[in-house]
């Protein structure tokens, strides 16, 4: 995605989403794939990411948001919603009020399965 642009996603996207420096995404829908945020880029998630997240910029999983998948963080990752999956990287991972790291409920075919109940 280009510098200076903001992408609003309210439906379902299947595939990868890359946010470049100066660009932003507001995800109220579902991303079924990977999210990559470059340094200087940002993502606000009030919907769901079902896949890995690589962050060099700023990612906020807000109160209604979920991130199911591994996170490699070299930027700022703020969790106010729910996140399930491994977290690596030297970036700042901040769990704020209401944020929750969810453990998998079971395994199917060698992969972790998360159930998001509210």
What percentage of the residues does DSSP assign to strands (E)? over 45%
Identify the overall geometry. globular
Give the radius of gyration: 13 Å
Measured as a percent range, the helix fraction is under 10%
* Strand order of the biggest β-sheet: 1-4-7-10-13-16
Major β-sheet annotation: 6 strands, parallel
Number of helical segments with 4 or more residues: 0
Total DSSP E strands: 19
The SS-based structural class is mainly beta
Average pLDDT score? 93
Molecular structure report:
With 118 residues, the chain is mostly beta strands. 0% of the residues lie in helices and 52% in strands. The chain has strands spanning 6-9, 12-14, 17-19, 24-27, 30-32, 35-37, 42-45, 48-50, 53-55, 58-61, 66-68, 71-73, 76-79, 82-84, 87-88, 92-95, 100-101, 106-108, 111-113. It starts with 5 loop residues before the first strand and ends in a 5-residue tail after the last strand.
Summary tags:
mainly beta, globular, 6-stranded parallel beta sheet, 118 residues
List the helices and strands and how they pair.
Layout: E1 6-9, E2 12-14, E3 17-19, E4 24-27, E5 30-32, E6 35-37, E7 42-45, E8 48-50, E9 53-55, E10 58-61, E11 66-68, E12 71-73, E13 76-79, E14 82-84, E15 87-88, E16 92-95, E17 100-101, E18 106-108, E19 111-113
Briefly, what is this?
The protein is mostly beta strands and 118 residues long.
């Amino acid at each position: 995605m280009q510098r200076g642009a903001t992408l609003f996603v309210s439906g379902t996207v299947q595939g990868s989403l890359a946010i470049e420096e100066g660009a932003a995404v507001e995800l109220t829908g579902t991303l079924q794939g990977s999210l990559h945020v470059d340094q200087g880029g940002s993502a606000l998630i009030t919907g769901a990411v079902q896949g890995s997240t690589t962050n060099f910029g700023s990612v906020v999983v807000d109160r209604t948001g979920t991130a199911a998948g591994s996170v490699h963080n070299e930027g700022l990752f703020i969790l106010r919603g729910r996140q399930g999956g491994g977290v690596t990287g030297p970036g700042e991972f901040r769990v704020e009020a209401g944020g929750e790291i969810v453990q998998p409920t079971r395994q199917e075919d060698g992969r972790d399965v998360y159930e998001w109940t509210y």
